[in-house]
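re: ur question from earlier - yeah i can do the single chain one, its not a big deal. heres the input i used so u can compare w yours
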Amino acid sequence: MGDTPGADEPTLEEQIAAYQREFSDLDPQVEQIVSALGRLNRRMNVAYGRQTATLGISNAEWEVLKALVLAGAPYRLGPGDLAKSLALTPAAMTHRIDRMVAEGLVTRDRDETNRVRVIIELTDVGREKWLDAMRLATVFEEDLLQDLSTKERGVLGGFLTRLLARVDSTLPHP
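and the output i got, formated as tokens:
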């Protein structure tokens, strides 16, 4: 299989037929849904990666910017909180923060109320990168969903939210 999503990849029908040949208990309807979701997720990640690359940031850096924005103004979190929210080890988080500080996307300072604690804060440059990424993503996402009516989007959103809730209730959060 190639590195480009979809290149040399069998169609969903071909994949399901091969699976059924090797595993007769397969429910083809379930496999179609799960395989389509998996492929869509991979392709979307590639598209988002290309978009963030045009902005000079990685998907990994985008995730940190997003976590800080989700924390709300003043867009600050401790490195441990960031690592936990992104399911990273403290060492991996430190490495990512080091790069982002060097790029001017975040600052790392001691907490004035607790000098032992470190605070990571979104900079104006980081916030602009986040906003630029959101603008690009919005165009991509609207294009992706253009063939669905408002009602269909609502139904699909509801279905996917239910599936996510099911997974979240049965599996530990990453």
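The two ends are 28 Å apart (CA to CA). not sure if urs matches, ping me
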